[in-house]
């Protein structure tokens, strides 16, 4: 199910002046990061980071199922793909391992993927090679510094999926996305409609006896856009997001990193394993977390003008 909300920016400057949404975004990001950093003091990854990235993306690749176990095409990909034509250039900022970049590259003349993580970038490179794609250019710099390599006005369509949450300086990030997009081009952001639905919030509270500081979500992003002067559209979609794991050990490895549980913290590790054993549901040889019907995201999109 997809619903579209057409929202307009406030009509008077006094309405905008009530809240500085850009500062509010920054405060949310920095507060969350401080909390995570405190828990990561002395933290050493239980397995190599390359393996963690691979495990994470393998789990993610198996998450798109409805409540009846039927595969679902990600609605963000469907929404963007219908706007992509063979002569177009698509820019994917924070492309990860190619979840959207690879299928969109098959439709476009050229795809530019920015990915600053060397490990994730190698997986992206491998995936593009496996897909036999010769039209993908990978840029290594983080955004917005990568704009200098991408170039101004290079993209017909720019996408940025679930990348904004840790970005404290949101205004230059968004402004650079627009600069990379040609006039009349389309920009698409993909964000959660709330906090995660994978029990991360619940588990954090149980492990540390404190709430996990919330991240910005789609309404925060929409308000930032309005403050900048961008009148955007919002499409709310059901994502069918259910984390799928091959084993309890795989689930523990993913959540141990997400929840900053130190390998030597045997008490919390036992607690985490026990709670995951209770929360995960076994279906068709896999362990699933959450209900697909409860998972929603927002596509925020606009035309550069």
Question: How do the strands and helices of this protein lay out in sequence?
Answer:
Layout: E1 2-6, H1 13-17, H2 21-40, H3 49-61, H4 75-81, E2 89-93, H5 101-105, E3 110-114, H6 118-130, E4 136-139, H7 147-150, E5 155-161, H8 170-180, E6 181-192, H9 200-208, H10 218-228, E7 233-238, E8 243-245, H11 248-258, H12 266-279, E9 281-283, E10 286-289, E11 296-303
Parallel strand pairs: 2-3, 2-5, 3-4, 5-6
Antiparallel strand pairs: 1-7, 6-11, 7-11, 8-10, 9-10
Helix pairs in contact: 2-10, 11-12
Calculate the mean pLDDT score and round it: 86
Oligomeric nature of the chains? single chain
β-sheet strand percentage: 15-25%
What value does the Rg take, in angstroms?
A: 20 Å
Q: CA-to-CA gap between the ends? A: 30 Å
Please give the domain count.
1
* CATH class division: Alpha Beta
**What would the CATH topology be?**
Rossmann fold
Poorly predicted regions: 1-13, 65-71
**Assigned CATH superfamily:** Vaccinia Virus protein VP39
Structural class: alpha/beta
User: Number of DSSP strands?
Assistant: 11
- Helix content bin: 40-55%
The SSE order reads EHHHHEHEHEHEHEHHEEHHEEE
Instruction: Examine the secondary-structure arrangement and name the CATH architecture.
Output: 3-Layer(aba) Sandwich
Number of helices: 12
Largest sheet: 8 strands, mixed
How are the strands ordered across the major sheet? 1-7-11-6-5-2-3-4
Shape: globular
């Amino acid at each position: 199910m997809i619903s579209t909300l057409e929202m307009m920016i406030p009509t008077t400057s006094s309405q905008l002046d009530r809240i500085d949404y850009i500062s509010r975004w920054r405060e949310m990001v920095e507060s969350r990061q401080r909390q995570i950093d405190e828990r990561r003091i002395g933290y050493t990854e239980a397995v190599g980071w390359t393996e963690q990235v691979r495990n994470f993306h393998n789990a993610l690749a198996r998450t798109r199922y409805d409540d009846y176990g039927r595969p679902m095409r990600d609605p963000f990909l469907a929404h963007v793909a219908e706007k992509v034509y063979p002569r177009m250039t698509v820019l994917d900022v924070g492309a990860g391992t190619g979840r959207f970049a690879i299928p969109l590259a098959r439709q476009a003349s050229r795809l530019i993927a920015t990915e600053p993580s060397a490990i994730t970038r190698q997986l992206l490179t491998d995936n593009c090679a496996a897909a036999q794609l010769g039209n993908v250019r990978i840029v290594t710099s983080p955004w917005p510094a990568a704009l200098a390599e991408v170039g101004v006005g290079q993209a017909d369509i720019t996408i940025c999926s679930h990348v904004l949450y840790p970005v404290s300086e949101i205004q230059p990030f968004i402004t650079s996305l627009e600069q990379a997009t040609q006039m009349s081009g389309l920009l698409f952001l993909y964000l959660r409609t709330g906090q995660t639905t994978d029990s991360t919030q619940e588990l954090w509270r149980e492990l540390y006896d404190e709430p996990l500081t919330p991240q910005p979500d789609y309404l925060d992003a929409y308000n930032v856009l309005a403050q900048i002067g961008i009148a955007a559209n919002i499409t709310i979609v059901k994502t069918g997001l259910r984390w799928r794991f091959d084993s309890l050990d795989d689930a523990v490895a993913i959540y141990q990193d997400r929840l900053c549980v130190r390998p030597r913290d045997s008490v919390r590790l036992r607690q985490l394993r026990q709670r995951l054993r209770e929360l995960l549901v076994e279906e068709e040889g896999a362990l699933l977390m959450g209900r697909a019907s409860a998972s929603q995201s927002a596509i925020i999109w606009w035309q550069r003008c």
